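Subject: for your reference before the review

Hello V.,

The reviewers asked for a structural picture of the protein, and I figured it would be easier to keep everything in one thread rather than splitting it across files. Below is the amino acid sequence we used in the manuscript, unchanged from the supplementary table.
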Amino acid sequence: MQKKIMLIFGTRPEAIKMCPLVLELRKHAQFKTIVCLTGQHREMLYQVMNCFGINPDYDLKIMRPNQTITSITIDVISKLDTILSEDKPDLVLVHGDTTSSFAAAIAAFYKKIPIGHVEAGLRTFNLYEPFPEEANRELIDQISTLFFAPTSLNKQNLNKQGIYQNIYITGNTVIDAFKYTVKSDYQFTEERLKDIDFIKSKTILVTAHRRENFGKPLKHICEAIKTLSNKYDKCLFIFPVHPNPNVSETVHYFLSNCKNVILLNPLSVLDMHNLISRIYFVMTDSGGLQEEAPYFNKPVLVLRNKTEREEAVKSGTVKTCGTDSEEIVLQVEKLFNDRVYYQKIANANNPYGNGHASEIIAGVLENFFNYPIINYAK
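And here is what came back from the structure prediction:
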């Protein structure tokens, strides 16, 4: 008899990391794979779903203007209550640290449905950095049954908080996604990317969207980029701008008149992944880019004071530089001017696996449903 596995996610980054797992689970006849979108993101989310050719079984469609983490949590739990009661999945899989994932885990817990946490064990050990993600992932892990940790450091973080059983080191499923998205002969769909000569021009990818960077931190980031764009006028800064007004209004105010700063709407996953593969380095407060860029040997400057991807810091693939304008400028200039330093970061060991995380997770789930639970943590 098939076991029902419901994957619940609602943001673009989650979709990028969960879609390869959906496709892998669908190869296994013993599973009935059910996809439920919360709709925390909307248009950006469906761009990813279309890229992987996945149609959801459910869409909660919770997105609304000026939504808050409170409204997201309430809406997801409320709407999942009926779905979980009717569909009765044998296992719910959630991803990472979004409010959608936290609310979905709570909804499953209330129904006494086992929870598998994909990308478990990421920690800064500061509940407010990042906010609310750090609390979300800690709370999810307190009620989960299976823990799919990308790295051994993530496993150690779980151990520090008293979790020892059913931890599986898998690598990160985002690496799996590149098999579907990155092509050497790829042609960009975004018009302003089509004519860029990535070989002749040093091109820097910039993203910023974290809640803790709203206000002064984002202003300082933009001031640094403006300073750099004026000083290095032969370089290009490509900045896909998050639609949240807290981000877009600040970014456009500071950077819209900079000739070598290209402000774009959010890119499709295909454009984004192929862009990462071609740029010179990345400046970001995103978590996902800290995992994605090292796969392509691209250095990452993290525009945050703390990162939960500490294994990337230890391996040398990313450098944290905070949000102080002067520090950001110094870090960028070092990458521009010190070729040995650049190569050291670019060629550091990528700690996030080799693109087989989804296969490992599927194998664990086969054992989970057929045999007593075994601790495979190494």
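For the response letter, the relevant points are probably these. The chain has 15 helices and 13 strands. Residues 149 and 295 are 18 Å apart (CA to CA).

Happy to draft the paragraph if you're swamped.

O.
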